[in-house]
């Protein structure tokens, strides 16, 4: 089970536009429940990643509301949004985005540092995650010595460390071979089944069909 409180994300009449005359999407309503995985799908440039970053409080909507854990998150100050991200969310990106100057284990522990919880138990949890996902390279090495699939598994470990209530993944299997992609995807679905709220932006409709629900993102009326 995911530690702590399970969290609902609710979008109400959400609109995002770089140009007022041409919104990327408009009037989006959706409720993301704990214990579910949701795939955000749509053509290239439809706004899948944008919607994910809105949910992750890294962007602000043009209009509408984002409620996380019952809090109007879009109205929070920047420092409050950052605190909510650190407390509730784990992120997996298409490119692993590991710090090349830090060891593998320190990359996994990065999120815990922002929560001031990095310690012996957290380090043991990080090592257990690396072992679980088959990262057999010495954890004190630098990530430059990893394959792409191993690097993404390290990024997955970083996202899951501390068992956050929400995991957001942006094309997490886009650059992976089938075996590594299966490992990452199965881990995300399994984590949702354990009680987390998992949202995945993906172009892979075959894997998207394995999620609890699918949200079509784009200029057409979103589902």
Fold blueprint:
Elements: E1 9-16, E2 25-32, E3 36-41, H1 48-55, E4 63-68, E5 71-72, H2 78-88, E6 89-92, H3 104-114, H4 120-132, H5 148-160, E7 166-170, H6 178-193, E8 197-201, H7 205-208, E9 213-216
Parallel strand pairs: 3-8, 3-9, 6-7, 7-8
Antiparallel strand pairs: 1-2, 1-4, 4-5
Describe the structure.
The protein has about 220 residues and is an alpha/beta fold. The chain has one domain: Rossmann fold (3-Layer(aba) Sandwich), CATH 3.40.50.300. About 35% of the residues lie in helices and about 20% in strands. The strands form 2 sheets. It has a 5-stranded parallel beta sheet with strand order 6-7-8-3-9.
* Sequence stretches where pLDDT stays below 50 over 5 or more residues: none
CATH class: Alpha Beta
Task: Strand order, main sheet: write it out.
Answer: 6-7-8-3-9
Mean pLDDT: 89
The CATH architecture: 3-Layer(aba) Sandwich
User: What do we call the CATH homologous superfamily?
Assistant: P-loop containing nucleotide triphosphate hydrolases
**Main beta sheet:** 5 strands, parallel
In helices, the fraction of residues equals 25-40%
Q: β content, as a range?
A: 15-25%
What is the number of independent domains? Answer: 1
The SSE string, one letter per element, is: EEEHEEHEHHHEHEHE
């Amino acid at each position: 089970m995911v530690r702590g409180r399970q969290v609902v994300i609710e979008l109400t009449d959400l609109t995002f536009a770089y140009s007022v005359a041409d919104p990327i999407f408009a009037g989006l309503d959706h409720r993301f429940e704990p214990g579910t995985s949701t795939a955000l799908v749509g053509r290239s440039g439809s706004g899948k990643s944008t919607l994910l970053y809105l949910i992750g409080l890294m962007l602000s909507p043009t209009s509408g509301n984002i409620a996380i854990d019952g809090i109007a998150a879009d109205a929070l100050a920047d420092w409050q949004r950052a605190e909510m991200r650190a407390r509730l969310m784990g992120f997996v990106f298409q490119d692993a985005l590991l710090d090349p100057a830090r060891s593998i284990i320190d990359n996994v522990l990065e999120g815990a540092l922002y929560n001031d919880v990095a310690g012996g138990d957290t380090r043991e949890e990080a090592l257990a995650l690396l072992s679980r996902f088959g990262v057999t390279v010495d954890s004190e090495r630098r990530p430059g010595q990893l394959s792409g699939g191993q690097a993404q598994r390290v990024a997955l470990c970083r996202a899951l460390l501390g068992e956050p209530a929400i995991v957001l993944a942006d094309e997490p299997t886009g650059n992976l071979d089938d075996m590594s992609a299966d490992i990452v995807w199965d881990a995300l679905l399994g984590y949702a089944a354990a009680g987390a709220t998992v949202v995945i932006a993906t172009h892979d409709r075959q894997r998207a069909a394995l999620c609890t629900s699918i949200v079509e993102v784009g200029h057409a009326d979103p589902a």
